[in-house]
Design brief:
This protein has about 120 residues and is mainly alpha-helical. It has a domain of about 80 residues. The chain has two helices and two strands, in the order ββαα. Strands 1-2 form a two-stranded antiparallel sheet. Helix 1 runs antiparallel to helix 2.
Length: about 120
Amino acid sequence: MTENVTSFDGSQQRLEGAPFGVTADELRITAVGAKIEFAKSELQTVQAYIDVAYAGRIAVTTDDGSELPADTLAHLGSVLSNYEQALFDQIAKLEYEQEMLLFPPDEDEDSPDGDRLS
């Protein structure tokens, strides 16, 4: 495949670096940012559903007309709360990953006391 190849005078030359100034790190940072935004949006939706589930404003009818167990909405709220916690964890992990991509740690800062190794 002829990726990153251009021809100005009939001879083909390979382009060095990323086209249009977009590097792999920039793409990775953008992808992580998009994942964070999606998870935050999902978190808002889940939190709204949790509020509805615990407020009891959900009307459920069964196909056969039987009664639902009394704790159905509590179970739904519990499941949503677990998902909410998973989203919090995912957002924290992604924000840490984004931080490491934006501000990579210096190699000299590896020692616990901050002293540079000779």
